[in-house]
């Protein structure tokens, strides 16, 4: 069991705590299956979406592999950052612009970009958009449980 100090609950390792808006879900398993359209709709129903410019949920969280679904409102921009692992950004809906130090990458629906570890970037939505962020680390570079 893992303690969740934010919500004051415990939950099984590899499972989210869940909230009134989002039920607990498994993040680790030999087979995990997702209806991405339903998951995007769930993101759009939550307070974080109504009150902010984006919302996200982690779909899988393995020690060296993570997949996050992100929904962004038109004009939203995730500030410049870098990941300690290799990443891919796959546009599921809308249109994204990925800003890199030396260029921009146009990412309409159905397109994917892969970036090496530690490459500074930001993501801008042109129209309401959704994307899958996949991060993978080499075993030695994997984030700690708090990461």
Question: Can you lay out the helices and strands and say which pair or pack?
Answer:
Blueprint: E1 2-4, E2 9-11, H1 36-45, H2 47-51, E3 54-62, E4 65-72, E5 77-81, E6 86-93, E7 95-99, E8 104-108, E9 112-115, E10 121-125, E11 129-136
Antiparallel strand pairs: 1-2, 3-4, 4-11, 5-10, 6-9, 6-11, 7-8, 7-10
What does this structure look like?
With 147 residues, the chain is mainly beta. The chain has two domains: 1-33, no CATH class; 35-141, Sandwich (Jelly Rolls), CATH 2.60.120. The protein is 10% helix and 43% strand. It has helices at residues 36-45, 47-51; strands at residues 2-4, 9-11, 54-62, 65-72, 77-81, 86-93, 95-99, 104-108, 112-115, 121-125, 129-136.
Supply the CATH superfamily name of the largest domain. Jelly Rolls
Radius of gyration using CA atoms only: 16 Å
Structural class label: mainly beta
| H/E element order | EEHHEEEEEEEEE
Q: What name is given to the CATH topology of the largest domain?
A: Jelly Rolls
Short description:
The chain is mostly beta strands and 147 residues long. The chain has helices spanning 36-45, 47-51, and strands at 2-4, 9-11, 54-62, 65-72, 77-81, 86-93, 95-99, 104-108, 112-115, 121-125, 129-136. It is globular and about 40 Å long.
Notable traits:
mainly beta; Jelly Rolls; 4-stranded antiparallel β-sheet; 2 helices; 10% helix; globular
């Amino acid at each position: 069991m893992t303690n969740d100090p934010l919500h004051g609950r415990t939950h099984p390792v590899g499972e989210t705590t869940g909230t009134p808006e989002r039920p607990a879900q498994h993040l680790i398993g030999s087979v995990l299956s997702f209806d991405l359209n339903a998951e995007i709709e769930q993101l759009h129903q939550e307070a974080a979406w109504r009150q902010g410019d984006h919302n996200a949920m982690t779909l899988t969280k393995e020690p060296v592999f993570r997949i996050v679904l992100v929904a962004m409102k038109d004009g939203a921009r995730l500030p410049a950052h870098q990941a300690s692992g290799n990443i891919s950004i796959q546009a599921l809906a809308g249109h994204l612009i990925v800003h890199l130090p030396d260029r921009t990458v146009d990412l309409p629906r159905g397109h994917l970009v892969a970036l090496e570890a530690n490459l500074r970037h930001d993501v801008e939505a042109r129209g309401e958009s959704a994307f899958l962020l996949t991060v993978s680390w080499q075993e030695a570079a994997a984030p700690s449980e708090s990461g």
